Amino acid sequence: MKYAYTSTLAVDTQGRYAKRPMVEIELVGKKWVNGLALIDSGADCNMINMLSRLEFSLNMEGIKST
After folding, report:
1. 11, part of any domain
2. How high is the pLDDT of residue 14?
3. 11: burial class by Cβ within 10 Å (0-12, 13-18, 19+)?
4. Domain tally for the chain?
């Protein structure tokens, strides 16, 4: 599959805005949130930051942390 690359606020080594493959997502929990997610087709795991985990009341019980 091919994905469009989106400019981000990150800057590359030449001072240009970095472009990354992003897709629109919709997270559904106690409330719905739309946003962008980075595609990493070579990844063997997924990550979510603690604030997002708390905001969506994600149950992490039984999941190993690395």
Report:
1. yes
2. 92
3. exposed
4. 1
